Every structure is written in structure tokens, then in C-alpha cells.
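(Protein data)
===
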Amino acid sequence: MRHDYDPFDEFLLHCSSEQEEAGRLPRTPEAWQPTICPDCQEEIKAHFRFCSNCGASVTQPDGEGNPYDLPRRERGRLFEVTLVGISQDVISNGESRDEEDDEGDTETRLTVVHLRVRNRTSERLCLSLTFAPSVLIDLTGQQHLPVLREEGDPDSMFDGWFYLYPGTWVEGTLVFPDPGVPLQQMYISCQPQDREEDLFHFPLR
């Protein structure tokens, strides 16, 4: 008995082969490093200059893209950390080099890292970002530890220890000595009391 060939079978075979080919394609960096809108927290598609949800710009005022592709969000076991922004070459009173007069050139230069930390658990947690030091690494490979609150802006810097209630978040800054060169990477350590730390890695190059 002769069975006629069904063209629908060929269509199904073609779709199956396309799915197999797609599964073998390498993932792009955007697949695991999404850009997060600083205003509405929605993900921004790769290479977009504006958020499609709220319209916020993701470029700097001079029109050039953010050199460190920020903001960026990482999730750990206990916490979620968003790297919101990085300001380099800031003098110790919070002003940039452009705002400083020539007579103040002896001021300490700092790099200010703006973070948002969220508690992902159902428990109240007491944590520190400086007890198990976070580290900023510059392009030469030199690592820099956070400075004391007295050297930065205490109003915006994280306390040494602070509480986060279930599902809540807090924003603040970590302040590092300014290396005077581009940055390579950063490790943010969230150390809860009596528990193993959550360590977050942010490549910056």
C-alpha cells in the first residue's frame, strides 16, 4: 500500500532543525548583563538610548554613552545589588574637579559608587558592605578599599552596619580613593551577621 507524502511533515522537520540551530548559537553579553532603567527599574534593550517604558535617557549629558554601561543589577542568595552609577575624580567635599577653584587642588580625590541594595528574603537582616571589604580594581590591577565615612559624604554613605526588612531596599554610596585611571572591575560584599556573605562581581571593561 502506497502512502502519499505529507508536506506538513516537511514543515515540521524544517521548524525542528531551525530550533536546533538556534540552540547552538552563542548568547550575547546583553543576555546576562541587562541594563536597568534608574527611574522605573525596567530592563532596557541592548543599544537603546532611552527607556521604552518611561522614556528616561541612558546617556550622559554630553551625549556619549555611559562608559561603564550602568545601571546594572545582580542577584545573590540573600540580596540584590544594583550598581546605579560611578563618579570619578570627586574631591572630598563632594564637588567635581570642574567645580573646584585652583586654590583647592590639594583636596583628596575620590571615586563614589552609588548602589541600591535589596533584601530578597522573608527575614530582617543586619548587614555591612564594609566589614568584609568591597574592592574596586583599576585598569593597572591595583585594588582599592572603601574609605572611612569621615573622608566622604556621611549623609549618602552606607552605615557600617544597617538593617534591611523583608523585601525592602536602600540606596547609598561606597567611597574609594580615586585611582586616576579607568576602572577594570569591582566586587561588592554584602555581609549579613552570622551568615555567609553575598559577593557580587561587576566587570567595568
Remarks:
- The radius of gyration is 23 Å.
- Residues 7-24 form the longest helix (18 residues).
